[in-house]
UniProtKB/TrEMBL annotation:
Region: Disordered, residue numbers: 269-299
Protein name: NAD(P)-binding protein-21
Pfam families per record: adh_short
Recorded GO CC terms: cytoplasm
Domain of life: Eukaryota
Family: Belongs to the short-chain dehydrogenases/reductases (SDR) family.
Taxonomic lineage of the native organism: Eukaryota, Fungi, Dikarya, Ascomycota, Pezizomycotina
Sorted UniProt keywords: Oxidoreductase
Source species of the chain: Coleophoma cylindrospora
A GO molecular function held by the record: oxidoreductase activity, acting on the CH-OH group of donors, NAD or NADP as acceptor
InterPro entries (UniProt xref): NAD(P)-bd_dom_sf, SDR_fam
């Protein structure tokens, strides 16, 4: 079910920066319209949207300010895509966060820098990393079925979906969840009467040099300054395009993206190569976790 992206339309959450911005730029350059759904745009994203907002003869870009934890705003993305472009063909629920202090397992709700409120009975990280991509996929499937046309949903998971990592357990859990979710939807691409085929797959990046890391000193503690494991977001965007356009990348496919690209097997997978795709300097961060535990629970 390969889909050529020219003259198609994509909805991308988190398109204001990082991997999602690079994917949006790549799609626009190949003639695919893009709806940028994010809370805000970094300057380079603003420039890209402005350049593709009205010029004749090129793919168009539209920005919709979107809080992905609000289901009504997720629904509005599809309405905006329909009004602006006649509908969507490709959906990437790419927005995600890497266990920041304000929604973090080691900073419980009601303590420290956490902004999660006990009275709300929810974690923002779970809303963003798990609930939002699940709900967006539901909406995408309904959109494709209503239009009776094929569609592609490409998720962004992580090598953290294959391995445990003590300092960021909720992030790890979220990526395990999305990998299981993507695999479980593989049959949507199989022929079934007159229903359109829908492909759901994912990339699983390792260390990617994006603002998700570089703008957060607490996260950069995990990585040596001369770490050779970095991969560019442009590299990941190219693999995401392959997932859309490649005939062989059927539903349920998860491609790990590090210094090399490989398919993550459902069973008996060897896991990511630790010398290339993983963080290496976790001891100091683990020390901080133990220190926080001692303060919070008087251990």
């Amino acid at each position: 079910m390969a889909m050529q992206v020219a003259n198609k339309t994509a909805i991308i959450t988190g398109a204001g920066s990082g991997i999602n911005l690079c994917f949006a730029r790549l799609l626009l350059n190949k003639g695919c319209n893009v709806l940028f759904a994010d809370l805000s745009l970094r300057p380079e994203a603003e420039e890209l949207v402005s350049r593709h907002s009205s010029a004749a003869g090129r793919a168009k870009a539209v920005f919709q300010k979107t809080d992905v934890t609000d289901w009504r705003q997720l629904e509005r993305m599809f309405g905006t895509a329909t009004k602006a472009f006649g509908g969507a063909d490709i959906v990437c629920p790419g927005a995600g966060i890497y266990e920041p202090p304000w929604t973090n397992f080691w900073n419980p709700p009601g303590q420290g820098p956490s902004k999660d409120k006990i009275e709300d009975s929810r974690y923002a990280l779970v809303d963003i990393n798990i609930t939002h991509p699940i709900r967006t996929t539901q909406l995408a499937i309904s959109h494709f079925l209503a239009a009776n046309k094929p569609g592609v949903v490409t998720h962004i998971t992580s090598v953290a979906g294959q391995v445990p990592f003590f300092p960021t357990p909720v992030y790890v859990a979220s990526k395990h969840a999305i990998q299981g979710f993507v695999r479980s939807l593989y049959r949507l691409e199989e022929p079934r009467g007159s229903l359109p085929k829908i492909r759901v797959n994912a990339v699983a990046p390792g260390l990617i040099k994006t603002p998700l890391w570089t703008d957060h000193p607490e996260k950069m503690k995990f990585i040596a300054e001369d770490d050779q494991g970095w991969v560019t977001p442009e590299d990941v965007a190219k693999v995401m395009l392959e997932l859309v356009e490649g005939e062989e990348h059927v539903g349920g496919t998860i491609l790990e993206v590090g210094k090399s690209v490989r398919k993550v097997e459902t069973f008996m997978d060897p896991g990511p190569p630790s010398d290339k795709n993983a963080v290496h300097h976790s001891s100091s961060v683990e020390d901080d976790v133990w220190s926080d535990l001692g303060k919070q629970w008087k251990a």
